[in-house]
Amino acid sequence: EVQLVESGGGLVQPGGSLRLSCAASGFTFSRYWMQWVRQAPGKGLVWVSRINDEGITTNYADSVKGRFTISRDNAKDTAFLLMNSLTAEDTAVYYCAREGGHGDAAVDYWGQGVLVTVSS
Amino acid sequence: SYELTQPPSVSVSPGQAASITCSGDKLGDKYACWYQQRPGQSPVLVIYQDTKRPSGIPERISGSNSGNTATLTISGTQAVDEADYYCQTWDSGTVVFGGGTKLTVL
């Protein structure tokens, strides 16, 4: 069974940093692109970042470019999202997601999400 | 940057067909997919590559994509279909979501 389990969320002050982790199991992690998607309370889904299977190619939404860094450790089946210079606008549930490999960036598995709250 | 536009809400009577549109410049030249999200739950992929259904998704859910519009159609809508629906595509390596449509089954 495919599982994605996020951790590392919580309350952080504006300007602070946080690193999210996504532990994957039930599939060959090193063969799949991974994404982070966020959802502010009561709002829609917003794409944040994606990384290729080898961890070499990364893409970012304009709103997080230069502040967030996606990475992965294929030996530990884990993806990461390092978030710096956080603002209140970054408050959201952050989902770790696996692309299905169909060439259209569609996500076939999602984690349960982890809440990040940026507030003083 | 690329944008996808969805109607905020769609209402349908039980047993009727519901259509949710997703508009973007030359969207038909790209792949579109759709997600269903029920309250308090993670999204679920219901359509990928414009028209394909993942395993476990009922046949009454279908998709199309042509011109500037992708469409998700639910035939014989049931109460269980009441949820938020999001379209998604990707362009130049970046992923784009539509704003979401709340489907209400009256």
Question: What characterizes the major β-sheet of chain A?
Answer: 7 strands, mixed
Shape of chain A: globular
Structural class of chain B: mainly beta
Shape estimate of chain B? globular
Q: Secondary-structure element order of chain B, as H and E?
A: EEEEEEEEE
Helix content of chain A: under 10%
Q: Biggest interface, which chains? A: A-B, 25 and 27 residues
Q: Which percent range describes the beta-strand content of chain A?
A: over 45%
Mean pLDDT over all positions of chain A: 97
**End-to-end distance of chain B, in Å?**
36 Å
Helix count of chain B?
Answer: 0
Structural class of chain A: mainly beta
What fraction strand of chain B?
over 45%
For the terminal residues of chain A, how far apart are their CA atoms?
Answer: 39 Å
Describe the structure.
Chain A starts with a strand and ends with a strand. Chain A has strands at 3-7, 10-12, 18-25, 34-39, 45-51, 58-60, 68-73, 78-83, 92-99, 107-110, 114-118. Chain A has 120 residues and is mostly beta strands. Chain A has no helices and 11 strands. In chain A, 0% of the residues lie in helices and 51% in strands. Chain B has no helices and 9 strands. Chain B has strands at residues 9-12, 18-23, 33-37, 44-47, 61-66, 69-74, 83-91, 94-97, 101-105. In chain B, strands 1, 3, 4, 7, 8 and 9 form a 6-stranded mixed sheet that branches. In chain B, strands 2-6-5 form a 3-stranded antiparallel sheet, with no helix packed on it. In chain B, strand 3 and strand 4 form a beta hairpin. Chain B is globular. At the A-B interface, strand 5 and strand 10 of A face strand 3, strand 7 and strand 8 of B.
Provide keyphrases for this structure.
heterodimer, A: 120 residues, mainly beta, seven-stranded mixed β-sheet, globular, B: 106 residues, six-stranded mixed β-sheet, 0% helix
